[in-house]
Amino acid sequence: MLKHLKQQVYKANQDLKKQGLVLLSWGNASGIDRKKGLVVIKPSGLAYDKMTPEDMVVVDLDGKVVEGKLKPSSDTATHLVLYKSFTEIGGIVHTHSTYATAWAQAGKSIPLIGTTHADNFSGDIPCSEDLLSQQIEGDYEKETGNSIIETFKNNNYEHIPGVIVKNHGPFTWGKDVETAVLNSVVLEELAKMAFFTFTINPKAGINKDLAKKHFERKHGKDAYYGQNE
Q1: In the predicted model, what is the mean pLDDT of residues 24-51?
Q2: Strand pairing partners for 172?
Q3: Cα–Cα distance, 102 to 113 (Å, whole number)
Q4: Which residues pair with 60 in a beta bridge?
Q5: Sign of torsion, CA 156 160 164 165?
Q6: Where are the domains of the chain?
Q7: What is residue 65's predicted lDDT score, i.e. its pLDDT?
Q8: Average pLDDT of 129-145?
């Protein structure tokens, strides 16, 4: 079942390791088949160099395991909340990458202060709010997803394809799991750049028109970056 998607999700998880975004068994990537309403996700706690495409777990949108001998990622419920709410995405990635997680632990959004950021994200990469004790003690992973959705009430999830979960780490998404990995790579680099920038100049900023220009030349209706397909 979903052999091609399993292969894609397996490769995405391996790419996270190759890009230096995960250590040990930390983090996870998933992909969704919208027509079938099924999600393929990394198994819980399985080291990246130990897994195979066949180890990927298939769950439905209620979290029930449809196929697989292993337990799905402990973050599965978070992924499912995002798939249900962000209906245009096809893949999700979660890591504990160093610089993005440092921003998460500091409880700070990553500000848009340069064109590299603007080329990929239309605004600040937001940091979610603290979870309440009852949320933590209840369905924690689901509530983590809900907190991300709440964070995006005033943000466009397609224009800002990532979030910093406070005290936890980054989640990114995209049209497919490959794009979600790319966005995770970019987010980590932006987190690193911002850290060094504010170390040099705590008052750093960017002209809003310049930021808008850079985002729209790649993503707007009149985008002209790259080659015509």
Answers
A1: 95
A2: 93, 162
A3: 18
A4: 38
A5: positive
A6: 3-219
A7: 97
A8: 96
Contact 13, 49 (CB under 8 A): no
pLDDT, tens digit, 9 for 90 and up, residues 85-126: 999 999 999 999 999 999 999 999 999 999 999 999 999 999
- pLDDT at res. 179: 98
**119 is an active site residue:** yes
- Alpha-carbon distance of 190 to 185, in angstroms, equals 9
Place of tokens 């099924």: 38
The catalytic residue among 60, 130, 139, 225 is 225
Give the pair of three-digit tokens for residue 216: 């729209």
Which member of 33, 119, 124, 176 is catalytic? Answer: 119
**pTM score of the predicted model:** 0.95
In the chain, the amino acid numbered 70 is L
Q: Residue 100 is encoded by which pair of tokens?
A: 């993005």
Query: By C-alpha distance, which of 7, 16, 73 is closest to 49?
Result: 16
**Domain spanning 3-219, CATH class:** alpha beta
